[in-house]
C-alpha cells in the first residue's frame, strides 16, 4: 500500500511516501501550515498527486508516553483528514523523528550550512516524515 506520511509541526508538515510494496521510503517535501486553503485539503491534494492509498499522521508523544498540546493538534489534523477525505488514516508515535533526521543530515554532510536554512527549506521535515514512515512500516511487518 502506498502511504503518505505526515510529520506535522507548527510551521510546516514534512511529507514522505513509499512504493506500493512498502519497501522504499522517499522524502516528499514539506507543506507550510499557515499558507493557503485548509491544511487537510492541501494534504489530501498532495496525497492524490502522489497516488497515496492511505495516510499516516505522526503523533508527537512526550518521552514518558503522555500526549501534550502538539499531540492533540496532530490528532485533530488526523480527525479532519478522516472527516473530509476518502483515504484511511493511521496514527503512529513520531517521538524523536526530527532528532534522527538531524543525525542523518549530519552523517550525509547536510549540516555544512546554517541549520536554520535546512529547517526553512523543509528538508529536515521531509526526512523526519521518512523516518516516521520507516518506523511505521517496520512495525507493520512485525508478527
Folded structure, characterized:
With 143 residues, this protein is α/β, with parallel strands linked by helices. It has helices spanning 39-49, 69-84, 97-107, 115-121, 123-141, and strands at residues 3-7, 12-18, 25-32, 54-59, 89-93. It has five helices and five strands. Helix 1 (39-49) crosses helix 2 (69-84). The model has no long low-confidence stretch (mean pLDDT 88).
Can you say what the CATH homologous superfamily is?
YqgF/RNase H-like domain
Q: What kind of sheet is the major sheet?
A: 5 strands, mixed
**Total number of helices:** 5
Strand content: 15-25%
| Structure summary, number of beta strands | 5
Helix content: 40-55%
Strand sequence of the main sheet, in spatial order? 3-2-1-4-5
Mean pLDDT over all positions: 88
Radius of gyration: 14 Å
The CATH class designation is: Alpha Beta
CATH architecture: 2-Layer Sandwich
What are the low-pLDDT stretches, counting only 5+ consecutive residues below 50?
none
How far apart lie the N and C ends? 18 Å
Order of helices and strands: EEEHEHEHHH
Structural class: alpha/beta
Categorize the overall geometry. globular
* Oligomeric status: single chain
Number of domains: 1
**Can you tell me the CATH topology?**
Nucleotidyltransferase, domain 5
Amino acid at each position: 500500500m502506498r502511504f503518505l506520511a505526515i510529520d506535522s509541526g507548527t510551521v510546516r508538515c514534512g511529507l514522505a511516501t513509499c512504493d506500493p510494496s512498502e519497501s522504499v521510503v522517499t522524502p516528499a517535501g514539506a507543506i507550510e501550515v499557515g499558507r493557503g486553503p485548509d491544511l487537510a485539503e492541501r494534504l489530501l491534494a498532495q496525497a492524490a498527486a502522489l497516488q497515496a492509498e492511505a495516510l499516516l499522521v505522526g503523533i508527537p508523544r512526550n518521552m514518558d508516553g503522555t500526549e501534550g498540546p502538539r499531540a492533540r493538534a496532530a490528532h485533530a489534523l488526523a480527525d479532519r483528514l478522516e472527516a473530509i477525505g476518502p483515504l484511511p488514516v493511521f496514527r503512529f508515535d513520531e517521538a524523536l523523528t526530527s532528532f534522527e533526521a538531524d543525525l542523518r543530515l549530519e552523517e550525509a554532510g547536510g549540516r555544512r550550512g546554517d541549520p536554520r536554512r535546512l529547517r526553512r527549506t523543509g528538508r529536515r521535515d521531509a526526512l523526519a516524515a521518512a523516518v516516521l514512515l520507516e518506523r511505521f512500516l517496520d512495525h507493520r511487518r512485525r508478527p
